[in-house]
Amino acid sequence: MRERIYDIALKHPIWILLASIILVILATAGAKNLVFKSDYRVFFSEENPQLTSFESMQKIYSKSDNAVFIIAPKEGVVFTPKRLAAIHKLTHESWQVPYSTRVDSITNFQYTRAEEDDLIVEDMVFDPTRLTSADMPALTELIVNDPLMRSKLISPEGHVSVVNVTIQLPGINPVEEGPEVVSKIREMKTNFLSENPDMDLYLSGMIIMNNSFAESAQYDSETLIPLMFGVVVLAMIFFLRTFSGTLATIIVIIFTIFSTMGLAGWTGFYLTAPSISAPTILLTLAVADCVHILTTFFYELRHGAEKRAALISSLRINFNPIFLTSITTAIGFLSMNFSDSPPFRDLGNMVAAGVMIAFLLSITVFPALLMLLPIKVKPQNTENSDLMDKFSAFVINKRNILLPGMTLVILSMVVFVPLNTLNDDFVKYFDKTVPFRQATDFMQDNISGMTSIEISIKSGESGGINEPAYLKALDNFSGWLRTQPETDHVSTLTDIIKRLNKNMHADNPAFYTLPESRELAAQYLLLYEMSLPYGLDLNNQLNVDKSSTRVIGTFKNLTSNEQIELEERLYQWFADNAPQYNILVASPPLMFAHIGQRNIHSMLIGITLALILISALLGIALRSVRYGLISLLPNLAPAAMGFGLWYFIDGQVGLALSVVAGMTLGIIVDDTVHFLSKYRYAREQKNKNSHEAVQYAFASVGRALWITSLVLVAGFMVLAQSSFKINADMGLLTAITILIALVVDFLFLPPLLMKLDTTPRYENQTDSTKGALHEPSSKNN
Amino acid sequence: MNLQAKTINWLLPAILLASASFSYAETAEEKGLAIAKQTKQSDIGWTDMTAQMQMVLRNSEGQESIRDIRMQSLEKKDDGDKSLSIFDRPLDVKGTAFLSFSHPGEADDQWLYLPALKRVKRIASRNKSGPFMGSEFAYEDLTSFEIEKYTYKYLRDESCGTEQCYVVEQYPVDEYSGYTRRVVWIDQSENRLHKIDFYDRKNSLLKTLTYAAYQQYLGKHWRPDMMKMDNHLTKKNTDLIWTDYQFNTGLSDADFNRNSLKRAH
Question: Which positions ≥6 away from A464 have C-beta within 8 Å?
Fold first, then answer.
């Protein structure tokens, strides 16, 4: 059957090529259905408990995606008539931002005060043209010391201020709505900067972050993919010294990527920041099959074989190993289906499908192309095989040092694995070149962090938030939260109620307290709500029947563990001080804080399953339980060592890295497969002892292994250049793991085999079909 | 501004030309205004009115919350109407009374009596655009209709249910309004409002108010039993259910002042 596949390819290369071009075009047409989803919510599955909490929080109150203008005078404070006028204007224009529902700034803050029996409710800065420098000290005092504004809308020093625009995207056309908002906001920024050259303006907020996902992904595909192609072309020309072979490989890679992405479009996938790295990863993986076929092909050619015979021979030798390695790679990527985060499942499925497509193309289109393209070889006796011989001699001679030495190295790296800390800080998903990161860092340094936690406190009865006992508890909680070391700001209803109580008593500061009766609190709120303008109502902190309120805490930049610990402290406070109230705690940062851990737990199951499957496949392919078991060590060790080394590189593990072990498993197993199959073949078919078999294995696949590994490492190192940390870390750790795997396969596996496999000679086996994985080749005769 | 000036530039000669050649030709603006005047005119003479209003607030999850309010209004010929709202439910605000004198073209006078404080407070605020008692109705949606509060533009005729309606665009004069415009459907037979679309400050559709179950009182005044406001953005909605309409109950200015507020409950 398989003979027939490549037979046709070699006999009718043009037909194969035309047929595949048509199929690839048909598949690629599906790419028109691919849309990029930039909403951060795509990272969470529908059943994710933190997402569920957050969505119910949003249903009780109001949705709270936002865009933030951060206004920073280059010198001095924002409190000058001219600067306040600029903020006033920006605030006013912000109502024109598409899908905006609310705008909060120091100028439209609803300031209440009393004059005899009048309650005056008006914008903090109502008419900026009437402001003079003489008004500034009093205004500064009022704004900077208001608990609702300080460290939220204004820095305590008064040198940075924020205009926060709440956005409610309808979600009807998610691909266009976000960019529509962003383009309006950027236009406003440009205008603001040209009108106010004495000030800087930065953009932050969830809407900007979503957009940064899209822009980082676009930037990556515009820069990284061409770079990858460059790396692959250079590496192939350098190592294999063939132009035609390189061209054929590039065509296979392009076909693979186009048809994979096209099929993803046909089958209803959408793209996300992580899954957009599928082409980059495929680009690297598709090279390996071609390199193996080419290496053997050229070997045969150099030894005088005719082109067609050389190709047939190469395909016959490589068919089983590359089929097996494709399957194991696919299984590794399929393990990502256990991820809690849908974009990673998509990435896994897309790459798994692509790897199988690459396999199909490598045994059809690739030989067809090689048949058609002119191939020239210089008859040469490669110095590389001498190098490999020297290397195998070294490994065999020093095996008694290498085995304990490598064991020690492995163990000493693995012990550092638990020292990695779990962290998913979505701000740090972007590197410092991304404007969103710069803006958010600036905001963290000057006003408040991006970490927010929302706490909904349920009184359990309609209107129950007016109950003095409830308000007391709310006030105590808010006060306690403010004293926590990580807190920047607490937004709470009790600040408003206290202020109203003071207003109702002729602004007497002695009445800045909670009202004594439920009715009084309710009537204050009624009065206050009657006098608020559109968009500045209390519906963002009160639910419809006034049975719950929402407190929003803003905190310094916290790691995932610190956030989870803070969350536990919040629950503990209520358990200790107000157990009668049900609370709901949620927020986007908290969702990210939990996802790393959830993902690691779910991925552990996936990796275990993948490992069992892959080991079983190896056992079957090598027809030996013994080799299956031996292969476990070199397959498992590299990922563990990689994570150990990661402690020294970064030390923080999150969503992205939790999938690396699974996906590298499938890739690194290839090296073991190739090495073990050659070793076993030498032992059983050629009746060699373990030393000779190691030598044979090095000589036959050593070169192909280090070339493919280096191409893979180079490829994933390109991915590591992504400005999107999830992809960059994933690329870097994968590259490290593949490199370690090569070292382990070269320095640890052979000494291990020589140690365990002590039978001097196998009985000469007559059953020559037993070595189904690897058929005799002429190259080592 | 620019656009308006341009419009007038070509509009004026056009109007002059049109009025020279035809005996009667109305611009869309004039027709819109005429319809508004006709609507106001057709309801004149109700003198005073009392009614029970129930608000049913629903969030996107369908959770409900109910407010009960007694309304009293006094017709004023030369100024905006006066109205007194007395809150009965939720119980926490029972007895709270809200008095307002509507003034076309300027901020309304508003007072609130808080029974828990036993004080009348005047609210000095230009804001009319915020939600009324947390509902989807803004205070400005509930105040009396006065010609001077809007400028107008007739759009088209359109059938509305079994009736034929004028569709008129109304532009709020008050710069603190939460809307850029309202599109109003008024039936041609009885000048009843059927539907209003509200467009927010960035001119996108925010809410739709529909009127239902009109009844005629005193052989002249049509009042709906039901007004339903749907917020398209938040998916929240509020029903206003009116009962017990009474006209000519003998209310006078004396029932609409600061002292009457305290007596209201």
Answer: A470, A546, A547
- Residues in chain B with CB shorter than 8 Å from the CB of A545 are 57, 63-65, 90
Determine the distance in angstroms separating the CA of B85 from the nearest CA of chain A, rounded to an integer: 12
Do A103 and A164 touch, CB atoms closer than 8 A? yes
Nearest to A594 by CA among A27, A54, A201: A54
Range(s) of the domain holding residue A756: 2-41+241-415+593-780
State the ipTM, two decimals.
0.83
Going by C-beta distance under 8 Å and a sequence separation of 6 or more, which residues neighbour residue A382?
A703
Q: Do the Cβ atoms of A230 and A283 come closer than 8 Å? A: no
Tell me if A6 is assigned to some domain.
Answer: yes
Residue contact A535–B110, C-beta within 8 A = no
| Ordered structural domains, chain B, with CATH | 39-263 (2.50.20.10)
Is A627 among the domain residues?
A: yes
Residue after which a domain boundary falls, among A534, A562, A586: A586
Q: Are B93 and B264 in contact (CB under 8 A)?
A: no
Type of residue at A725: K
Exposure on the CB side of residue A242, measured as CA atoms within 13 A: 24
**In this structure, are A206 and A246 located in the same domain?**
no
Tokens representing A748 are 């640890």
State the CATH number of the domain containing residue A21.
Answer: 1.20.1640.10
Q: Are A421 and A559 in contact (CB under 8 A)?
A: yes
- Residue at token pair 């409830």: A470
User: How many CB atoms sit inside 10 A of residue A180's CB?
Assistant: 14
Sign of CA dihedral B9, B12, B16, B17: positive
Q: How far apart are CA A299 and CA A573, in angstroms?
A: 72
Are B114 and A120 in contact (CB < 8 Å)? no
Question: Residue A354 has what pLDDT?
Answer: 95
Say if A422 falls within a structural domain: no
The alpha carbon of A302 is separated from its chain's Cα centroid by a whole number of angstroms, namely 45
Domain count, chain A: 3
Same domain, A551 and A652: no
A346 & A265 share domain: yes
A233 in a structural domain = no
Can you tell me the mean pLDDT for A484-512? 92
Check whether residue A653 and residue A715 sit in a common domain. Answer: yes
| pLDDT grade for A1, boundaries at 50, 70 and 90 | low
**Residue A208: CB atoms within 10 Å:** 23
Any idea which of A126-140, A243-257, A655-669, B230-244 has the lowest mean pLDDT? A655-669
3-state secondary structure of A89: helix
CA–CA separation, B66 and B239 (whole Å): 10
Residues A246 and A364 in one domain: yes
Tell me what the mean pLDDT of segment A671-685 comes to: 84
Nearest residue of A to residue B66 by CA position? A545
**A519 to B93: CB separation less than 8 angstroms, yes or no:** yes
Q: Across the strands, what pairs with A102?
A: A166
Mean per-residue pLDDT for A417-440?
A: 86
* CA distance linking residue A287 with residue A710, whole number of Å: 11
What is the dihedral sign for C-alpha A291, A295, A296, A297? positive
Residue A172, judged by CB atoms within 10 A of its CB (0-12, 13-18, 19+), counts as exposed
Residues of chain A with C-beta less than 8 angstroms from the C-beta of B176: 533
Query: Which stretches does DSSP call E strand in B221-265?
Result: 221-231, 237-247
Q: Which residue type, as a one-letter code, is found at position B84?
A: L
